[in-house]
Design brief:
Blueprint (H helix, E strand, L loop, with lengths): L7 E2 L3 H11 L4 E6 L6 H16 L4 E5 L7 H5 L4 H6 L9 H13 L6 E7 L4 E9 L5 E5 L19 E6 L2 H16 L3 H19 L1 H5 L2 E4 L2
Parallel strand pairs: 1-8, 2-6, 2-7, 3-6, 7-8
Antiparallel strand pairs: 4-5
């Protein structure tokens, strides 16, 4: 079936999650993308809590792609490590090969074996292996991250791995305002420091995220 020029708005994402879970006999992966500060993690965790209160513990799980950042040691070995650290968050500062491998492992391991999923420790600035354990019985998994809808270069391998892809349709400026606030509250930055950090990196990265809006199967309204 050909997709329309613009994805339609999915008005009841929680209902869609429940329907997909009940309709499938195998493990399925969903993906949600959006700008930094759009609220992907927050809304996804709300769906997770509500879905599992209905379906049972660990029936539906949410995992993020932050654990696939390249390590600080890898960044130091790059041709321009200063740029790599300054622009950490660009697609090439992630490890798409490892991301793809883990997604395939998830799809193949249903009912067979648990799978460890990496996390990211912000206070040390590096990924942590097997931070989350996904039980073999978990049938539906939502992967949230800014580049889950990127299909350029090494990221092209993501095509076909997700049963559905969603884009959290938060306006860019709204997301940036939330990001400024987060930088101030979490990292203790001044207003100028927070804006310089977000505008000098996160906003620039959005050029790789924006095309995913039209590529998605559905748009999700801003929370």
């Amino acid at each position: 079936m050909l997709k329309s020029a613009m994805p339609e708005l999915l008005k009841e994402p929680l209902k869609r999650i429940l329907d997909i879970y009940r309709e499938t006999e195998s493990r399925k992966l969903l993906a949600i993308a959006g700008y930094p500060g759009s609220g992907k993690t927050t809304v996804a965790r709300q769906w997770e809590e509500k879905a599992n209160s209905i379906l049972g513990p660990s029936s539906f799980m949410v995992v993020g792609m932050d654990g696939f950042h390249r390590t600080k040691e890898e960044l130091r070995r790059m041709e321009n490590p200063e740029l790599a650290f300054a622009r950490r968050g660009l697609p090439w500062t992630f490890n798409p090969e490892s991301f793809l491998s883990k997604l395939r492992e998830l799809k193949d391991s249903y009912g067979k074996t648990p799978v460890g999923w990496p996390g990211f420790e912000h206070h040390i600035g590096d990924p942590v292996e097997d931070a989350v354990m996904i039980p073999k019985e978990c049938k539906l998994i939502l992967v949230e991250g800014i580049y889950t809808l990127l299909r350029d270069g090494e990221w092209a391998g993501l095509e076909g791995l997700f049963a559905e892809t969603w884009f959290l349709d938060t306006p860019l400026e709204t997301a940036m305002e939330r990001l400024y606030k987060r930088h101030r509250e979490v990292w203790g930055m001044s207003e100028d420091e927070a804006r310089a950090r977000a505008d000098g990196n996160d906003r620039l990265n959005c050029e790789y995220i924006t095309p995913g809006r039209e590529r998605a199967d559905f748009l999700i309204a801003d929370r």
